[in-house]
Amino acid sequence: MNEVSQNNTIKSVARKLPTTVTPAIRRLSVGLLIGQGVLIVSGGVVRLTGSGLGCPTWPNCTPGSLTNTPAMGIHGVIEFTNRTLTFALAAVALALVVVLWNLRKERKDLFWLTFSLLASIPVQAVIGGITVLSGLNPYVVSLHFLVSAALVVFTMLLVNRAYGRAGRTAPPAALRPRKTIRQLSVVAAVCTYLAVILGTLVTGTGPHSGDATSPRTNLDGYLVTRIHVLPVYVLVAVSVLLMVLLWRRGRGDILRNAAILLIVSVVYQGAIGYWQYFTGVPIFLVGLHMVGASLLLATGTNIVDLALRRGKDPVRSA
């Protein structure tokens, strides 16, 4: 095929791509959000089952084999599945970038958020490789998780914009919440992110290293746990306050619903956190805690995004 034919083919394909935000674009954005959460849980399964070195090399799973081999057993299957999920998410992000091509100027927010997700997924894969090559150094493991956490945050922003819930395409008639609500939503989001970041230090002192030979941090586990729960306490108080202040908006209000989702996530995550702490950190509960971390990241980002990036200030009469 000559260059002219290639250009004509590309132009023909481009003409068939959407020029407006379609249900397919929205579904792909939601799929990416769910996938990022599943990736976090999948990484947790790798660590909790001791499969962190199930594929002992990188980028190959074993020397001379890109995939796991039967000799590697279940640990090889678990680790290779987690690696494969990363590339599956990259494929979905690439598909969304292509679908958004005709909207790259009109909807820069959607296009560049998706492009950043696509660009960061290979970075995440490289960090995963460093994690393996470093023998599951707990600080590198924490960085690996935090990149996934950041991807959940950015994907939540993408979903809100794909559905016209926030950003410049939010309903023009929507009014910004009052300053108190905006400030409290910022505090809630900051506390959410702090709790997740500090939670990685707790994980680094815990028993589930991903492999029996992997090092742990030399931090005081009790002290780190106490520090970790400080932003959680503030988050609980702020979430309750937001719920009280937004309740009067009535059923169906988007911010009230966001506050409900936030407080449900906080209660769930807090309950699982204390349950696992007082029962010796069993594997099943730690896995549920990873699910809660994904939910908390999404709901904390959702409410601050809606509070700050939706609606206009009401016009005050003279």
Record keyword descriptors for this entry.
mainly alpha; 9 helices; flat
What can you tell me about this protein's structure?
Helix content is 70%, strand content 0%. It has 318 residues and is an all-alpha fold. The longest helix has 27 residues, at 73-99. It is flat, with a radius of gyration of 22 Å. The mean pLDDT is 89.
Helix content: over 70%
Order of helices and strands: HHHHHHHHH
Instruction: List unreliable stretches of 5+ residues.
Output: none
- Beta strands, count: 0
- End-to-end distance, in Å? 69 Å
Class computed from helices, strands and strand pairing: mainly alpha
- From the alpha-carbon coordinates, what is the Rg to the nearest angstrom? 22 Å
Major beta-sheet overview: none
Mean pLDDT: 89
Task: Write down the overall geometry.
Answer: flat
Beta-strand percentage range: under 5%
Write the layout of secondary structure elements.
Elements: H1 3-16, H2 23-48, H3 73-99, H4 108-133, H5 138-162, H6 179-205, H7 221-247, H8 254-278, H9 283-308
Concise description?
This protein is an all-alpha fold and 318 residues long. 70% of the residues lie in helices and 0% in strands. The radius of gyration is 22 Å and the shape is flat.
